[in-house]
Amino acid sequence: MTASPAPDRAALLALAVEAAQEGGRAAADGQAGIGVLDTKSSPTDVVTEMDRSVEELIRKRIRETRPGDPVLGEEGGDVAGEGAVRWIVDPIDGTVNYLYGRGEWSVSIAAEIAGEVVAGAVAVPARGDVYTAVLGGGAFLNGEPLRSATAVPLELALVATGFGYDSRRRAQQAEVLRTVLPRVRDIRRGGSASVELCELAHGRVDAYYERGLNPWDWAAAALVAQEAGARIGGLHGAPPNPDLVIGAAPELFVQLHDLLAPLGADTDGPAAD
Fold first, then answer.
1. pLDDT tens-digit profile, the chain (273 residues)
2. Cα(271)–Cα(172) distance, rounded to whole angstroms?
3. Which CATH superfamily is domain 9-145 in?
4. Where is the signal peptide (predicted)?
5. In angstroms, how far is the first alpha carbon of the chain from the final one?
6. Of 60, 72, 256, 264, which is least surrounded by CB within 10 A?
7. What is the largest CA-CA distance in the chain?
8. Boundaries of CATH 3.30.540.10 in the chain?
9. Which residues contact 28 (CB under 8 A, 6 or more apart)?
10. How many Cβ atoms from other residues are within 10 Å of residue 43's Cβ?
11. How many Cβ atoms from other residues are within 10 Å of residue 176's Cβ?
12. How is residue 190 annotated by DSSP?
């Protein structure tokens, strides 16, 4: 029996872009006056009606073109399928920003084959930006090639980060930041992991780190950053994971990694008695 051909990565990217842009338009049109529909891990970890409706719109678009593919979405969970591609969807990354009428939010869609992300699109509707990447094919912003910033010494690095919703985790992240802040140029906190990773790809920050992310937060944007020349990973050679995601030019990655590793940046602090 002849093996089925591998899915065409350009076609996967085209579907991701189409769905992300459509979802972004729907979310942007519904942003004014949006309210909290539900909460998740804490009262500050909010969900809006648009998070769920945009994810369903994206799932529908994917099903129309590739009906057998599984989809992992932030709101709808992991839906199994027999297809060769798993889609990883964040309908609105930066929901608190979205709720407050801010522009730092995105729609993020990645296509994964055999555990490896091969195509991704991140739409940032408030800016009219669409970041795209195909594995081995480079990164682009609105069709123009992207290259991340060249490495600078740690003390000159503009570093982006983010904070979790659990109070204990936030306290530990603040402790880590107390050590990091005096060692770098400055800190930026935008409130959307995928936007921050795309900012890294664009050279608008030099580095990024955050604990507590999920695959839908980083899947597409990490590919964009990697294809732009950044290194993305966790601690001690691990791939990006919920414990910690770090991104920077390769030389700076090592410096930031070595600063974060002994600080417990991948933990929620000492275990309670």
1. 334 467 899 999 999 999 999 999 999 988 877 766 555 555 544 467 888 889 999 999 999 999 999 999 988 888 888 899 999 999 999 988 998 899 999 999 999 999 999 999 999 999 999 999 999 999 999 999 999 988 899 999 999 999 998 999 999 999 999 999 999 999 999 999 999 999 999 999 999 999 999 999 999 999 999 999 999 999 999 999 999 999 999 999 999 999 999 999 999 988 643
2. 11
3. Fructose-1,6-Bisphosphatase, subunit A, domain 1 (3.30.540.10)
4. none
5. 59
6. 60
7. 62
8. 9-145
9. 125, 126
10. 9
11. 20
12. -
Q: Is 222 exposed, middle or buried (0-12, 13-18, 19+ CB in 10 A)?
A: buried
Do 31 and 132 meet the contact criterion of CB atoms below 8 Å apart?
no
Residues in the chain, total: 273
> Using CA atoms, how far apart are residues 229 and 251, in angstroms rounded to an integer?
11
Please tell me the distance from the alpha carbon of residue 94 to that of residue 116, in angstroms, as a whole number: 24
